[in-house]
Automatic annotation (TrEMBL):
Lipid bilayer topology: Multi-pass membrane protein
Organism per entry: Tetranychus urticae
InterPro entries attached to this UniProt entry: MannP-dilichol_defect-1 (IPR016817), PQ-loop_rpt (IPR006603)
Keywords assigned: Membrane, Repeat, Transmembrane, Transmembrane helix, Transport
Superkingdom assignment: Eukaryota
Annotated family: Belongs to the MPDU1 (TC 2.A.43.3) family.
Gene: 107368144
Lineage: Eukaryota, Metazoa, Ecdysozoa, Arthropoda, Chelicerata
Name of this chain's protein: Mannose-P-dolichol utilization defect 1 protein homolog
Subcellular location, record wording: Membrane
Membrane-spanning intervals of the chain: 88-105, 112-139, 196-217
Length: 233
């Protein structure tokens, strides 16, 4: 007898193991969505408070943004339950704001405006329903190299700089845990092998970024302190 079957003996509502798995997946899925509506806000607030995107790789963030967007377009077209992919919608919005903030504080205001317009048009097209599902599948297959490429670009910037700048430890840790949880919910709710592989590899990439944040913790604090002194002068 499995651990789940043992636990179900104490449930006030009679449930079969498969029913329990579905309920757990739904509850976990919506919990991830609720958390994702806040998960990147610490990163955004850190950039805005410092009025600097130092250490944040814009191109890495942009690649992640398009990866979340492709996941939304594909899942929406496949009519997957919102509990299986809804966090991508919130994460792309937060990533979009982070990209704009980095460009803005880097005094690239024209680039900021052009990026906002072009991305909005691309996302509208993905969610329009006019793109054939087979094309969306191929686009979704790009999700993995886009997402991992974005993480690796950030990881390379961290390694090169020997600090993680304005990268948020809270955001990175929550993203890592969220991806791990998404492996289970995706298996239960969609059984889409492409999405399962994406979340599995993303978990490893996010773990690398979390490791860097804590490894370079002292260097980062020194860098941020120096940056703050320069601004005061």
């Amino acid at each position: 007898m499995s651990l789940l079957e043992e636990l179900l003996k104490f449930s006030p509502i009679p449930l079969e193991p498969e029913q329990a798995k579905v309920l757990i997946a739904k509850a976990l899925g919506y919990s991830i969505i609720i958390a994702s509506s806040l998960i990147k806000l610490p990163q955004l607030f850190k950039i805005v408070q410092a009025r600097s995107g130092a250490g944040i790789n814009f191109y890495g963030q942009a690649l992640e943004l398009f990866a979340y967007s492709l996941n939304c377009g594909y899942s929406f077209a496949k009519l997957y339950p919102f509990s299986a992919w809804g966090e991508s919608l919130f994460l792309l919005l937060e990533n979009f704001l982070i990209c704009l903030a980095v460009l803005n504080y880097d005094n690239r205001k024209k680039s900021c405006f052009v990026f906002a317009i072009l991305y909005s048009l691309c996302f509208a097209a993905l969610m329009s329903g006019f793109i054939p599902i087979n094309i969306l599948w191929y686009l979704q297959s790009l999700n993995l190299p886009l997402a991992i490429g974005g993480k690796m670009m950030q990881a390379w910037s961290n390694y090169k700089n020997r600090h993680t700048g304005q990268c948020s430890a809270i955001t990175a840790t929550c993203l890592c845990l969220g991806c791990i949880a998404r492996i289970f919910t995706t298996i239960q709710e969609t059984k889409d092998s492409l999405m399962i592989v994406n979340f599995a590899v993303a978990s490893v990439a996010n773990f690398l970024l979390v490791s860097q944040i804590f490894y370079y913790w002292e260097n980062t604090n020194k860098f941020l302190a120096k940056s703050a002194k320069k601004k005061k002068k």
